[in-house]
Specification:
single chain, alpha+beta, five-stranded antiparallel sheet, 11 helices
Length: 479
């Protein structure tokens, strides 16, 4: 574009020289000869001193190049007896009448005759201003101021040729300068373009290096600022969105758990209620004494199961709501294990199960004694309900990195891998038929999880040595 502008300027200058300059030159020359004529006319009219006339005419010719002044004094302009006297005119004679037509000139005074003539001999064109002054007595003055018009044609040609060469040089130089400086001007603009494209793709890692203090540098600084602000805002929005998504997932999970809880409770209560209703209706009819006792035993047993489930549900609800915050005290975990084993001693004897306890050291912990005892009891109850004919039950206490680990192992059928992650969910049962046999509700391990998480401890399960091991761990309190 810059080179195109230069070419346009050079071309327009050539056209102006060719078509406009001659007319302008003609107008300027016309004004020049009219002004020179007026000056000479005024001097000759007021004070026809030959020396003053000579010096004035000489000065006019030197100042206005190409102008010639001719002044003739004629004592008898209308007679041929005496030739005209040349007052000023480069020593040329006017007897031939080539320079002055006296008959015509004597009819013009302050407003000269303007004529454009071509010399027959040389073929040159002249522009003339001619007039006369009729003095006192018999002396008349004839004034001619002329200039040639051939110089303009040569000047236009030379000027066009010069401007053509000069324009070509300017175009070449401007092209080189554009190539040199365009990289400097375009580099930041291209960097801005690249950065804004990256910003449109939400990639704000592209930063613009600001190397100038002009408008482009200010634009780059503003885009860098905009990039940082957008990155920060979008990052905050993404974090907020992630939090909202987590909250939404949590709410969906809570709703799902609530629905599952209601469904499971309804399912668990449906069977005992149906049994109670059935046997209660049976009591209304006349049954014998033996059947009556059996019916009453069934009703009492199912009512006891319902009571157990309701108490567990209330316990779980208290844990979930935070109403049962751990009331921590210092105690030895080994003592809790022994106390729980003592409570299960009758069941152990009935099933002829020998318990093996590994770990001679007793570990001091700080936790809620009642809740931790509930955890150990749930693990032992779960182990006794699933122990097989090998009747192996082992409790192991160990420490590592300041934590005590209590593991309860029972021989029995391994838990399917797909069920391991779900064991800690409420009402989850691997074998529902077997669980129904011993009156399980599917809440024991869920209670364990809730209690241990409230103590910031760990828990887990694994299949080992033809059996299953459940464990939990708590931080050891220094003696």
């Amino acid at each position: 574009m810059l080179v195109g502008v230069v070419v346009f300027l050079v071309g327009s200058s050539l056209l102006a020289n060719t078509f406009v300059l001659p007319s302008y030159y003609y107008f300027r020359q016309l004004e020049a000869i009219k002004e020179a004529y007026s000056i000479i006319y005024t001097i000759v009219l007021n004070d026809p001193n030959p020396e003053l006339i000579y010096s004035t005419a000489k000065k006019l010719e030197s100042v206005n190049a190409g102008i010639n002044v001719y002044i003739i004094a004629d004592t008898n302009a209308l007679s041929d007896l005496d030739p005209p006297l040349l007052v000023y005119g480069r020593g040329q004679s006017f007897g031939s009448g080539n320079k002055l037509n006296v008959t015509v000139a004597q009819n013009y005074s302050i407003n000269p005759l303007i004529e454009k003539k071509t010399d027959k001999g040389s073929g040159m064109q002249y522009l003339r201003a001619m007039g006369s002054i009729h003095g006192d007595g018999y002396v008349d003055y004839y004034i001619t101021v002329e200039t040639t018009l051939e110089a303009i044609s040569a000047s236009v040609g030379i000027s066009n040729q010069f401007q053509l060469y000069y324009g070509a040089i300017i175009v070449i130089i401007s092209g080189i300068l554009v190539l040199l400086f365009s990289n400097r001007f375009l580099r930041p603009i291209l960097a801005v373009n690249k950065a804004t494209k990256q910003m449109a793709r939400l990639d704000f890692s592209q930063k613009i290096e600001v190397t100038s203090q002009d408008e482009v540098g200010e634009l780059a600084q503003n885009i860098n600022f905009l990039s940082r602000e957008l990155e920060s805002t979008i990052s905050n929005l993404q974090k907020t969105n992630a939090q909202l998504q987590e909250e939404l997932k949590h709410r969906e999970q809570v709703d799902r758990m609530r629905q599952e809880f209601i469904s499971n409770v309804s399912h668990e209560l449906k069977t005992p209620i149906a049994l109670i209703m059935g046997y209660a209706e049976g009591l209304k009819i006349n049954v014998n004494e033996e059947d009556r006792d059996f019916y009453c035993d069934v009703i009492a047993d199912e009512a006891n199961k319902m009571n157990k489930m309701v108490r567990r549900l209330l316990y779980v609800a208290q844990l979930d709501s935070g109403a049962m915050q751990p009331e921590k005290t210092e105690f030895y975990i080994g003592d809790v294990v022994n106390r729980c084993l003592d409570k299960q001693s009758i069941t152990l004897k009935e099933k002829d199960i020998q318990v093996e306890v590994d770990g001679e050291k007793n570990y001091l912990v700080e936790a809620d004694l009642e809740q931790i005892e509930q955890v150990v009891t749930n693990y032992l109850t779960n182990a006794l309900n699933h122990i097989d004919e090998k009747k192996k039950l082992r409790i192991r206490l160990s420490d590592h990195d300041g934590w005590v680990k209590v593991a309860v192992y029972n021989s029995g059928k391994a838990i399917p891998a797909e069920s391991l992650p779900h064991l800690w969910e409420s009402f989850y049962k691997v074998d529902k038929a077997r669980t129904r046999e011993y009156g399980g509700t599917g809440l024991g391990l869920y209670i364990v999880r809730t209690i241990i998480e409230a103590h910031q401890g760990g828990y887990g399960v694994r299949n080992i040595d033809e059996g299953v091991e459940f464990w939990f761990e708590l931080p050891i309190l220094p003696e």
